[in-house]
Amino acid sequence: MTVLSHRARAALALCVVLLLAFALRVYRLDANALWWDESLSLYRSTRDLGTVLANTILIQTILTTDTIPQGYFLLLNLFVRAAGTSEFALRFFSVLANVATLPLLYVLARRWASPAVAWLAAFLGAISPFYVWYAQEARPYALVLFWSTLAVYALARAFPVASFSVSRSYIVVYILASIAALFTHYLALFLFPFHALAIGILVWQTLARRWWCLLPALPAASLLVLLPQILTSMAGNIGRGPVFVPLDVILRDLLHSFSVGITLDGTVATLIEIVMLILFVLGVLAARSRLSLLLVGYLLVPLLAIFVFSFFRPVYQNSRYLIALTPAFYLGVALGIAALARWRRAFAGLALGLCVLGALLSLHNGYFDARYAKDDHRGWAEALHKRACVGDFLILTSPHAEELYRYYADDVVPMITLPILRADRQPMPEVDRAYVRAALQNHARVWYLGLHVPFDDPDARIEQYLREEGVLLDEAHFAGRSTAITLLLFARALPTAEATEIPRPLEVAFAGHLRLRGFAAPTSGVAGKPLRVKLYWQVDEPVGEDYAVSLRLVDAHGARIGQWDAVPLGNRAGSSTWSAGQIIVDERVVTLEPGIPPGVYRWQVVPYRSATRHALGDVVTLDEIHIR
Q1: Coil, helix or strand for 307?
Q2: Shortest CA distance to 84 belongs to which of 134, 142, 138?
Q3: By CB count within 10 A, which of 153, 512, 548, 572 is most buried?
Q4: What is d(CA 153, CA 171) in angstroms, rounded to the nearest whole number?
Q5: Is the dihedral angle over the CA atoms 99, 9, 288, 276 positive or is it negative?
């Protein structure tokens, strides 16, 4: 009865940890837009299985080989068939993989240490900001962590220390999990030296079992299947892959990420890192010699293998590539807290409290601090949806970001990706300039969306061509963590008109030498559908500021139903750039709220000073519109 009671309490405690982990990972899961790396996962997961298995990505007319193998994308492809391709669904697969890792961390720690240490290790994993960050990302890092942890646990079960037997069923699990890890991320290959060391530590006292140290060669042999695509991918990334990183930089990066994630910096972060490092060292020193060797080997052998390999071909980019080593770190920290508790329980509570404090601060930053937000692809897409007109065109740079554009802009305007890429990577400036000229000649307005993936247009040639060949009307920048995001609007020339071309002439003089010469507005429309309004402006003499204009829709009682404020033409072609006597055509696309009741409404307009918002005159009523 007592044994069952202990097991029930342990199971309940683990369930609480898993529920906490799940809640932390699904909270604000879709608060951020997808970033560029995740768009590659979107691309891979929405293609046919043949393309997924071929491990290729088509960019313009160039067929490239992905730098990450098929495993994750194959499973994600099957998952999104049922769950869809929303931001939440794409990332939820990583949530499941990461939460499923925690029971493995628990049973591994329980087998190597004790139930109390197992609970602590699982708890540290549950609140880990590092885990939460990559559980909320549609990339393979949470999945490779799951497979690699399963492989280590299978080894622990396959070679029990207290027995001379070998569990062949767990050997099969180990082989399959290791192959799955390798097919999820190539760097899982560097775990195999540790696997061999771990088997040696577990079986070395039994001469007849020492040959099992060769077991990792079996899953490692599956690399032969991947070798052709690895070589192709390496050849395609010569000159633009990772650079060599010194060992001390790698160690500091890993300690920071494993301790407080990537969303906490400064003195507090350093303090938490030091505390967790001390706890890990204390745990290693207090553990049995066999477990100490396992933990140190788990952390250092793959790391040193990667470092040595980097002398020939750099592979380390950042801590996410070594997420598979984190179980050793959290288990060591848990052992340190347990050892401290045996000496002074209050000190152990304080140490655990500091770990929790670091996690909470980092998680708060990850959830709410704009400095750590992913790229704001929703922002430029919303701006484009609101302002794009029929006849507009868009140039996207870089071509690698086309999937992001399709996902968020939904083909709102026709587009092309520039620069034109060649297999030999040689630029074609004259061809690119010709495309820019054709876009400006054939379309009234041309949008430029700059997502500066550096190896596509590192010199910003496309933007330069647009500035040279056209007139910049508007410029907007959006927050980006991995890339700068710029949305520009160009025209062949400022849109002007003759007085005889104005459909509804007016002659309304405002302060600041500004005149409203007329308008063109629809007299009927449907709620929820876009409407095009043209306002014709003129300055009597040059002005030194950009006026803004408020276009409004009011009901019969004068209540505002809609309001659209903007600088005519755009913030780079406002009234300060106009010539005296020119009639400027300010065309706007407005969308009425779907819930507007049918009836008769009136268009109104009033210009004002942008800096002070002081009106330049009275509100002018233009015309009526019948909303159906």
Answers
A1: helix
A2: 138
A3: 153
A4: 10
A5: positive
Contact 466, 435 (CB under 8 A): no
pLDDT at 352 over 70: yes
374 three-class SS = coil
- Phi, psi values for residue 518, rounded to 5°: 160, -175
What is the chain's length? 628
CA angle 460, 462, 467 (to 5 degrees): 100
What phi, psi does 471 have (nearest 5°)?
-115, 125
Token couple for 76: 């994600």
The amino acid at residue 565 is D
pLDDT tens digits along 558-590: 899 889 999 999 999 999 999 999 999 999 888
428 Cβ contact partners less than 8 Å away, ≥ 6 residues apart = 419, 420, 422
pLDDT digits (tens, 9 = 90+) for 220-260: 999 999 998 888 877 766 556 688 999 999 999 999 999 99
Contact 7, 113 (CB under 8 A): no
Pairing, β 445-451 against β 524-525 = unpaired
Order the strands of the 485-491 sheet from edge to edge.
415-417, 393-397, 445-451, 485-491, 471-478
Residues 603 and 590 sit within 8 Å (Cβ to Cβ): no
Q: Is the pTM for the entire model greater than 0.90?
A: yes
Residue 530 to residue 299: CA distance in whole angstroms: 58
Answer yes or no: are the C-beta atoms of 193 and 149 closer than 8 Å.
Answer: no
- From residue 617, how far is each of 444, 539, 556 by CA, in Å? 31, 15, 22
**CA–CA gap between residue 625 and residue 547 (Å, rounded):** 26
Report DSSP state, residue 213: G
> For residue range 430-449, what is the model confidence (pLDDT) as tens digits?
999 999 999 999 999 999 99
Give the single-character DSSP code of 496. B
pLDDT of 239? 54
